[in-house]
Amino acid sequence: MTSTPLATRGLFIDGAWSDGTGDAAVTVVNPATEEVIAEVPEATPADIDTAVTAARRAFDDGPWPRMKPAERGRILAAMAEELNRRRAELVELNIREAGSTRMIAEMLQVGTPIDHFTDMVDRVLPGFAFQEPVAPIFGNGIGQGVVVREPYGVAALITAFNFPFLLNLAKLAPALAAGCTAVLKPSPYTPLEALILGEIAEAAGLPPGVLNVVTGDVAAGEALTRHPGVDLISFTGSDTIGRKVYAQGAETMKKVVLELGGKSANIILDDADLDTVMESVLAGFITHAGQGCALLTRILVHESLHDDLVARIVGALGFISVGDPADPTTLMGPLIRDVQRQRVEALIASGVEDGAQIAFGGKRPEHLDRGFFLEPTLFVGVDNAMRIAQEEFFGPVGVVIPFRDDDQAVRIANDSRYGLAGGVWSADPQRAAAVAHRLRTGMVVINGGGGGLNPAAPFGGYKYSGIGREFGAYGLSEFLQHKALQWPVR
């Protein structure tokens, strides 16, 4: 596994590329090889101000928010065409920058977000009601009117490292479709998949200032969330940072949309077919080395099936190949950085200290001396009050918790500060649906249907998992204000 440095550009501000005003750089590392693959400028507060000012000018004085939706749609369609043209390049970049396996890169990391972007252009935008009539009122004369949905303004889009291209496009597509202008700040671990969107915007003819891409760490993010020129923040990341973003946005009464963490439960009822369940159970904690907020990492299984299911999982984990994500036969790649691996290892240690048992894994793979790898790990003997059942690992660790009946399964699933996703398995779809309705979570997949990334369905969470929704018309609505225009009937 070797990495050659990538040719990169600087910050993308007001339709032009810049090296920024500071001397510091963001170092991009291939997590599978630990080799530096690129360096990009670290934006200073002055750079953030320049980017916000450009977005502000493009919104207040430029054509973008005043275009008809169909006019914006034509430029977005050109962006979609460019995204598709560069699909193979994006896959290779994601493998190197985010450490995705080839299969995950092709499907979830690149294919799915391009599909969602195209869906916004082809389905959502043409049919969205930007204006609706208001029913007439009677009283002091007769009044009538319309409700107009207008772009919110300048949007700060802040994304995480785990699914960078998906997160970038999940925010950018609705923001641009709504008529907002944007400043996109990706994770410092994965800036390249955001900067390439500047090139795509250039190629598609997006007006200057409508999209600005800045790179940096905490200081750059805080300069953006506190900037008075920003009207809306859309943030994806941990709930710890999300609460800080929420507070920072409140200082100037910004709208804040948060997509945060999860500790989602996969409920396997006593009549479920374990042969059918296995793919979901394994994917729930090994997909992208467990670095997914909506992964189903708590495996809740009826006590009558517990031992059989654990034996099946342990047997299957022995065949999970961990290693070079560029190799098509690899099923699990690395964690993003060593600091993330250390966090996961510390939480694994806490599970052992609390009395849970490791049924598989728990260590660094012996055959890999470079890269931030960790074995897929399964815990049994877990009580839902333990840290390993309550805290998000963001690593390849699943916990198995038995239950007696449907009521107890629901209680355990809901006993979490998170509420992002969930799964229910049963031979009786009506029974599974009845359990799903009782879960306090933003999405539930019943018997594996839909996979959870349908662009027509809303994505977002209850409780500490966030505020607001993404995807499709639901995501578009978050970037719009509602204005009532009313007049008398003459």
Task: Write the topology of this structure.
Elements: E1 11-13, E2 16-18, E3 25-29, E4 36-41, H1 45-60, H2 69-85, H3 87-98, H4 102-127, E5 131-139, E6 141-151, E7 154-158, H5 164-178, E8 181-185, H6 192-204, E9 211-213, H7 218-225, E10 232-236, H8 239-250, E11 255-259, E12 265-268, H9 274-286, E13 298-302, H10 306-317, H11 338-353, E14 357-360, E15 377-380, H12 387-390, E16 397-403, H13 406-414, E17 418-419, E18 422-425, H14 429-438, E19 445-446, E20 462-463, E21 466-467, H15 472-478, E22 480-488
Parallel strand pairs: 7-8, 7-10, 8-9, 10-11, 12-13, 12-18, 13-16, 15-16, 18-19
Antiparallel strand pairs: 1-2, 3-4, 5-6, 6-22, 11-21, 14-15, 17-20
Describe the structure.
The structure is a single chain. With 490 residues, the protein is α/β, with parallel strands linked by helices. The chain has 15 helices and 22 strands. The strands form 6 sheets. The chain has a 7-stranded mixed β-sheet with strand order 14-15-16-13-12-18-19, with helices on both faces. A 6-stranded mixed β-sheet has the order 9-8-7-10-11-21, with helices on both faces. Helix 9 (274-286) links the parallel strand 12 and strand 13 (298-302). Helix 2 (69-85) packs antiparallel against helix 4 (102-127) and helix 2 (69-85) crosses helix 6 (192-204). The longest helix has 26 residues, at 102-127. The radius of gyration is 23 Å and the shape is globular.
